[in-house]
Hints:
The chain contains five helices and 16 strands. The chain is of the alpha/beta class. The chain has a seven-stranded mixed β-sheet with strand order 2-6-7-9-10-12-11, with no helix packed on it. The chain has a three-stranded parallel β-sheet with strand order 1-3-4, with helices on one face.
Amino acid sequence: MVLLGGDLFHENKPSRKAMHGVMALIRRYCMGDKPIQIEFLSDQCVNFASSKFAHVNYEDPNLNVSIPLFSIHGNHDDPSGLGNMCALDILSVAGLVNYFGKATSLESVEISPILLQKGRTKLALYGLGSIRDERLHRIFRDGNLSMLRPKEDKDSWFNVLVFHQNRSKHGETNYIPEQFLDNFLDLIIWGHEHECKIDPSWNPERKFFVSQPGSSIATSLSEGESKQKHVCLLQIRDKAMKCTKIRLETVRQFYLEEIVLSETSLDPVDNVETLRIYCEEKVENLLDRAAEEHTGNPKQPKKPLIRLKVQYVTHYQRHYTVQI
């Protein structure tokens, strides 16, 4: 199965071209006659309550699904407007995506897990689509968020939460501290944050792992976006897991480098031409590095994104703009 942590689309109303491309990819790679050996145990009417067809797509007699795709919504493709709909609602009603984790109340949230079993391994999959951070912070603080657990043999389940909120602190309430999350969880798949930190990190206080997959492409010219992009192959057996990261081979390369002129012998006021040549050499070196690190995949763009930041401050703290 494929699990997405939100923001399948960059906007709430994706273009027809974007929607067509996504539907074509899902139909090509996720539909087929391959049997699915995953048993769905929970109440599907509860898990997919927001869908017109409240059941998992691979159990629909009118569909042939070989790889089921589960997704929550993010802050870019969140529900809005008449009917509180989003792009995932369209993919869900078409039988292409199993859309879950849609909260309808502004005051309280109750998360009922999707219960899956394959062999002796049991997975409790919790999902919560993006909610305004200040609002969700208040819901957590007031104790109005609850996660239901299986009634029978609850300690035998591997518990995963798919989440799409600010992880980095930007203010007092516009992020969600990891300490807010229940400590019976085994793994948090944290969406929204763009930097790829996909290797699971251990939270010793809450006793769970956190994996931050990051964005699949560079959406801004920031330092976090310059990190290598990966997806994760997650293997679960009983209460143990193994996370194998897989590099994305078709992402346009992005390199960011910062030059602090106070740490060099260059002075743009005295010799602008010398600084221009120095910066050109830096860019050429990054282009050579990009050529060496290119995956060789024909679908990966040949030309990388490069951002060179030049910092120069005089003794009087006056900033000069110098054409390079």
